[in-house]
Amino acid sequence: MILDSFPSPTLSFGEAESELRERLRDWIAANDPGEVPEDYEERLRSGVRWQAALNDAGFIGLSWPREYGGHGLGLAAEAVLAEQMATSGQPELINRIGVYMIGPTMMDMDTEEHRRRFLPGMLDASELWCQGFSEPDAGSDLAAVRTSGRVDGDDLVINGQKVWTSRAHIARWCAALVRTEPGSQRHTGLSMAIVDMGAPGITVRALPQILGEPHFNEVFFDDVRVPAEDLIGRPGDGWRVAMQMLSYERGLFVLERQIRLRQRLDELADRLDRQDASVEERVGRVRCELDLLQAQAYRTLAAQRDGTLRSGATSVDKLLLSHVYQELFALGADVLGPEVALGLNDWTHDLLESRAVSIYGGSTEIQHGIVARQLLGISEAR
Ligand SMILES: Cc1cc2nc3c(=O)[nH]c(=O)nc-3n(C[C@H](O)[C@H](O)[C@H](O)COP(=O)(O)OP(=O)(O)OC[C@H]3O[C@@H](n4cnc5c(N)ncnc54)[C@H](O)[C@@H]3O)c2cc1C
């Protein structure tokens, strides 16, 4: 039964993609910004410059329609970009949330006026976006969102708190899920507000991670006024908009991560003690899991392209990614031992970072539930 739920066609690459791959490879080689800066804030600034340069060169928004600044190509072209960014060791796009999640959702569900206003800044990274979904008591249970948006004349007045908001401190805009119908419950009465992060009443407080990097934040809204018409989609349609956004979250992200993980595995394999059969076996297992993940990522992208992506199908991608990610860096810690324990190289950083993969974008336990219910047809335990 689960096989029926996998999209069967896969992404195909033709001459156009080969030509793009070559062009990108040459361009990246000629414009390589060099070492990724150590300092986190400097790394973010260099990420902005890098995306702007890629956009100037015509490589951002490859699958977006030309009328919105894109290049009218298919998802296979985006896959080539993801592949080249990863293989050349360049960081992921700084405005990934805008380009791959919020922008496409705006094109699907928003007004022409909003598209004209907001899409260009996503492409050239002049306006970064963050995703304001999670709250202290609404993470896995997102429908428990309590942050309110009260209509007052032409304004929406927002009060409440978001948490774990990645890069909120550098974002110009936030897509914030807020409750706009007083007294509404669960999935109803929600709207997706476009919030100017510079508006009075917003406080962003960094939550430093174990890595020491202030990647995510708490965001407090205290009588924050935004134009009431600045919603993605219609008032009360917030849940549908949120789900649409999340449906774009995985395909390309998983594909790119898979390539980066493969590079790290190769690096580790070069340093192995060939006498240890059990380690060799673990390396082989991780390699097989990466192959599986690659196949699944291509299938997901093909289903996105064809409009046949089944609800819940990308939970499989997320589960596979989380598992292999954590396996690889646990293996790295075992093989490299003291180097990792003493924090002497980037394997320590990645080991720590790998612990977050099974939480962000929906925890492993929640993905198991989705696979059981939506793909396997197993009903809730009584
Ligand atoms: C690095 C990182 C970046 C993030 N960036 C963003 C962002 O930009 N924007 C944003 O909105 N959010 C972001 N998040 C938040 C993320 O979406 C949530 O952490 C995630 O959805 C889990 O919610 P929670 O942290 O509230 O945990 P909870 O929902 O409180 O869950 C705690 C634990 O209980 C388990 N659990 C909960 N419910 C069930 C259940 N029904 N059955 C079985 N187990 C259950 C969970 O699996 C988890 O292990 C980010 C998180 C991380 C780690």
How many separate domains make up the residues? 3
Q: Which consecutive residue ranges, at least 5 long each, have pLDDT under 50?
A: 1-7
Number of helices: 13
**What name does CATH use for the topology of the largest domain?**
Butyryl-CoA Dehydrogenase, subunit A, domain 3
- Rg on CA atoms, Å: 21 Å
| Share of residues in strands | 5-15%
> What is the string of SSEs from the N terminus onward?
HHHHHHEEEEEEEEHHHHHHH
In CATH's first tier, which class of the largest domain applies? Mainly Alpha
CATH superfamily of the largest domain: Butyryl-CoA Dehydrogenase, subunit A, domain 3
**What gross morphology would you assign?**
globular
Bound compounds, each kind once, are: flavin-adenine dinucleotide
CATH architecture of the largest domain: Up-down Bundle
Mean pLDDT: 93
User: In angstroms, what separates the terminal alpha carbons?
Assistant: 23 Å
Main-sheet strand order equals 1-4-5-8
Oligomer: single chain
Helical residue percent band: 40-55%
How would you describe the overall organization of this protein?
The chain is of the alpha+beta class and 382 residues long. It folds into 3 domains: 2-123, Orthogonal Bundle (Butyryl-Coa Dehydrogenase, subunit A, domain 1), CATH 1.10.540.10; 129-236, Butyryl-CoA Dehydrogenase, subunit A, domain 2 (Beta Barrel), CATH 2.40.110.10; 244-375, Butyryl-CoA Dehydrogenase, subunit A, domain 3, CATH 1.20.140.10. The protein is built from 13 helices and 8 strands. It has helices at residues 2-5, 15-31, 40-56, 75-87, 96-109, 112-123, 238-247, 251-270, 277-306, 314-336, 338-341, 346-357, 364-375, and strands spanning 129-132, 148-152, 155-166, 173-179, 190-196, 202-207, 216-227, 231-232. The strands form 2 sheets. Strands 1-4-5-8 form a 4-stranded mixed beta sheet. It has a 4-stranded antiparallel beta sheet with strand order 2-3-7-6, with no helix packed on it. β6 (202-207) and β7 form a beta hairpin. The longest helix has 30 residues, at 277-306. It is globular, with a radius of gyration of 21 Å. The relative contact order is 0.11.
